[in-house]
UniProtKB/TrEMBL annotation:
Keywords in alphabetical order: ATP-binding, Membrane, Nucleotide-binding, Transmembrane, Transmembrane helix
InterPro entries per the UniProt record, alphabetical: AAA+_ATPase, ABC1_TM_dom, ABC1_TM_sf, ABC_transporter-like_ATP-bd, ABC_transporter-like_CS, P-loop_NTPase, Type_1_exporter
Protein name: ABC transporter ATP-binding protein
Membrane topology of this protein: Multi-pass membrane protein
Length: 855
């Protein structure tokens, strides 16, 4: 097991070739490090003493070359050392994370996510700095130390002996200080984990904190942990710098003795000046490898403490075998027999006691009972979420606890009341279970990933189609989209105008090349379209020379900059003396982050000939602000009628000069923009703009905007929902619906699915389980967040399409759904009090009857 491997087992068994190559490289650098010392001696004793200039130059060049080559080898060695450390850490982290995923579910009840995150990231990252040089550093440092020492003995044995006197003192003192530092490191790791847990808990429980206004309470808790960490780190640094202080003292004691004794020997003529210079250099270099040895010892102790703490945190065996020895996974019919099953947490909390139950293939079984009765525990034990120690659960005569996880995953689908939704798209989450089966089974029997047709079918079964259709309608149409939606969308525009003209008049503003768009930005009105080239984006186009020259040619550049100044001034005046908040800027072309800059522009500008003059960057900012201005939404100033006329004229010029199209191709027949079939299709994905022409897709615009061929007038959710409803009604009569739903599968659900409602998450989790086509489907209050209509749809799915095919075990909270189940099992206090058909139990007037009456 990975947690039982000592730290050095990774170092000795992995990347051996790389470590040997690194060792050879570092040994070569050691030899080159001694050469400059010899050249120093020869420069002084031979070249300078003899006055030999050519020899002096030669020795100096060789001295420099030796330094450069040694430095280069050291550089390459350092990079290689860190690379080895990173690769070893990557392997440890990956192996450990895989192990963590297999730990028993009960482990995670007692371990906060922050502990796991900190251990696998920060704590292992600190270990990586040691791993790369774990073998090379001590060997090369020791050899370097011995090499320099041998050279010093060669120069003057007596002085070399004096130099060695100080090292035993360090060997005795440093380990004692390091032992204390190790103890502090253990405490620091513990406190950091507690802080991580508290931060994670506070973020996860932010609703409760806001609801109870417990900001100070949580801040005080965190401050106490933070103060504890500060105290530990302070003590650590006191010891750390104490070690450095001692190192410095010992380092400078050597030169003291050398100058005293070596100087005396040189005065007496028993030691040449060149030899003394070389000896001093050698002593200085001698301390470098010694310091590396001390640092290595300290780093090893720190890394070993961290490594052992991390591994101890996860040193538990998985409850179940992960994968069987021989693919493919077993397939079961779904007959389940529970005998004498008991389950406890610890020695005092008994959740189930002597449970017996039989379920035949294809039966629908409901588990009911009051809160704490053990129904969810029973469901999770059958789903192999926990390991039981007493009793038996058999599926098709095989003991459940003996089956591996791959067999269980292939046969059992489990949906919890609060299912986890992974970051990514709806498609990613739907395919998750099938992708997991495919990863676990590399044989030819592995299931293929579901097709789009399969996904759409299961989405329809669980009632998620309308939700995904809505996501699809609001998905932006990418230039490289391959759904062939152009012709259907253009046809939908025509049908919408013909069949729902009056219904949408008050909801949208249609695109009309001859009318100013009150709910479009000034930039949108000029280009009459959307930019596809980022260089023409609304926040960058103010610096685009082609666009700026066009504005000058149309005589509107100065007016737009002035308009931007008016918007900025009006905003600054409105917020004078008030703390700006993000809510205010929802109806302003300026963002909260930009407010300070625009306030500076308004307050600091020059005036020439009665007109304000700005710096170039400020002028760009004002132009950008004006280009964002939407008259229908931004009410701080009114758009002058004359400027509006100039903008319409500029639109025609822009289409002709930059778009290279005749404005007439963007004309629509009728007041509401019926498609002009005589117009040609002009938009291309590779073009810099997608123009609002009735025969074309508007790339980067939402699909619903493409269909209604206009902009929604209101941001009110009710009016947006009304518009969606009109389009929905139209789409249900068209074949294009599936293509749009397919695009909705690409909707990003956000972190943990936070962009989905609780009901949508449950439907998605149910669809994910159904896509495995399991023999047994376990639902642990899996429809609790659904409305009555959605629950009824799921119930019909179970009764009509799953009965006699799939064994269903459902923990039920709505008792009115019980008549649709073949068997009802009632639990109280962890025991089954009665079981049978719904009619039998009601006629008996026992526990189920009492439960229904109490509701």
């Amino acid at each position: 097991m990975v947690t039982e491997k000592p730290l050095f087992s990774w170092i000795l068994k992995r990347y051996r070739a790389a470590q040997v190559a690194l060792l050879i490289l570092m040994l070569a650098s050691i030899v080159l490090r001694i050469l400059p010392l010899e050249f120093q001696k020869r420069i002084v004793n031979t070249a300078i003493a003899d006055g030999n200039t050519p020899l002096l130059i030669r020795y100096c060049i060789l001295f420099l070359l030796a330094l450069i080559i040694a430095g280069g080898l050291k550089y390459v060695g350092n990079v290689a050392e860190k690379w080895i450390g990173l690769k070893l850490t990557e392997e440890i982290r990956n192996r450990l994370f895989t192990h963590v995923l297999t730990l028993p579910m009960g482990y995670f009840r007692h371990t906060a996510p922050g502990t796991v995150i900190t251990a696998l990231t920060a704590e292992l990252s600190a270990v990586s700095f040691f791993l790369g040089g774990a073998l090379v550093v001590p060997i090369t440092s020791l050899l370097t130390f011995l090499l320099f020492l041998a050279y010093m003995v060669y120069l003057e044995p007596y002085l070399a002996l004096i130099t060695l006197i100080i090292y035993p003192f360090e060997v005795a003192i440093v380990p004692q200080l390091q032992k204390r530092m190790n103890q502090l490191n253990v405490r620091r790791i513990h406190v950091v984990r507690q802080m991580s847990n508290q931060i994670g808990e506070s973020v996860a429980g932010i609703h409760e904190i806001h609801g109870n206004a417990s900001f100070r309470l949580e801040a005080n808790r965190f401050a106490a942990e933070s103060a504890g960490l500060t105290e530990i780190v302070k003590r650590t640094f006191v010891l750390k710098y104490g070690v450095k202080f001692l190192n410095n003292i010992f380092q400078h004691l050597g030169p003291f003795f050398l100058f005293l004794v070596g100087g005396y020997l040189a005065i007496e003529g028993r030691f040449s000046l060149g030899a003394l210079v070389a000896f001093l250099s050698a002593h200085e270099k001698l301390y470098d490898p010694w310091k590396e040895i001390l640092e290595y010892y300290q780093n090893y102790q720190d890394a070993n403490v961290r490594y052992r703490r991390v591994m101890a945190q996860f040193d538990r065996q998985p409850d179940f075998v992960l994968n069987g020895a021989s693919p493919p996974a077993q397939q079961f019919a779904g007959n389940i027999r529970v005998q004498g099953l008991s389950y406890s947490i610890g020695s005092h909390v008994h959740l189930l006691s002597d449970v017996n139950m039989n379920v035949r293939h294809g039966e629908l079984v409901a588990l009911v009972g009051p809160s704490g009765s053990g129904k969810s525990t029973l469901a999770m034990l059958i789903g192999q979420q926990y390991r039981y120690r007493r009793g038996s659960i058999r599926i098709d005569h095989q003991e459940l606890s003996d089956l591996n996880k791959r067999d269980i995953s292939s046969n059992i689908g489990f949906v919890a009341q609060h299912p986890f939704i992974f970051s990514g798209t709806i498609r990613d989450n739907l395919c998750y279970s099938r992708r997991a089966l495919r990863e676990a089974d590399a044989s030819a029997h592995a299931q293929e990933l579901p097709t789009t047709s399969e996904l759409l079918d299961v989405v329809r079964q669980v009632g998620l189609t309308d939700d995904i259709l809505r996501f699809g309608l609001h998905a932006k149409l990418a230039p490289d989209d391959e759904n062939n939606l152009a012709a259907p969308i253009v046809e939908l525009r025509r049908l919408l105008r013909r069949e729902a003209d009056a219904s949408i008049q008050g909801l949208i503003e249609s695109y009309d090349v001859h009318r100013y768009l009150a709910y479009g930005s000034i930039y949108e009105n000029i280009v009459f379209g959307r930019p596809l080239d980022p260089a023409y984006g609304i926040d960058t186009v103010a610096g685009h020379p082609v666009f700026v020259d066009f504005l000058y040619a149309q005589g509107i550049y100065t007016q737009l900059v002035d308009l931007g100044f008016q918007i900025a001034r009006a905003t600054v005046q409105l917020l004078e003396g008030v703390q700006p908040e993000a809510l205010f800027f929802t109806s302003n072309p300026m963002s909260l982050n930009e407010f300070d800059r625009y306030r500076d522009i308004v307050g600091h500008h020059n005036v020439q000939r009665g007109r304000p003059v700005w710096q170039e960057e400020d002028e760009k900012a004002l132009l950008t602000l004006a280009l964002r201005f939407v008259p229908g939404r931004h009410k701080m100033i009114a758009l002058p009628a004359q400027l509006k006329r100039l903008l319409l004229a500029a639109r025609n010029a822009f289409l002709a000069q930059i778009g290279n199209i005749d404005p007439s191709v963007c004309e629509s027949d009728g007041a509401m923009g019926t498609v002009n079939h005589a117009a040609a299709s002009i938009n291309r994905p590779s073009a810099p703009f997608a123009f609002y022409c009735p025969n074309d897709l508007i790339y980067t615009a939402p699909i619903i905007e493409n269909i209604v061929f206009g902009k929604a007038i209101s941001d009110d959710p009710a009016e947006r929902a009304e518009l969606d409803g009109i389009v929905f009604k139209l789409l249900r009569t068209q074949k294009v619906t599936e293509s749009i739903v397919a695009m909705g599968l690409g909707f990003d659900v956000g972190s943990k699915g936070d962009r989905l409602s609780g009901g949508q998450r449950q439907k998605l989790a149910l669809a994910r389980a159904l896509l495995k086509y399991p023999s047994v489907l376990i639902l642990d209050e899996a429809t609790a967040s659904l409305d009555n209509m959605s629950q009824a749809q799921i119930q019909r799915l179970l009764e009509t399409q799953m009965r006699s095919k799939t064994t269903v075990i459902a923990v039920i909270h709505r008792l009115d759904l019980l008549p649709g189940y073949d068997q009802v099992v009632v639990l109280e206090g962890g025991r089954i009090t009665e079981s049978g058909t719904y009619d039998e139990l009601i006629h008996r007037k026992g526990a189920l009857y009492d439960l229904i009456q109490s509701h």
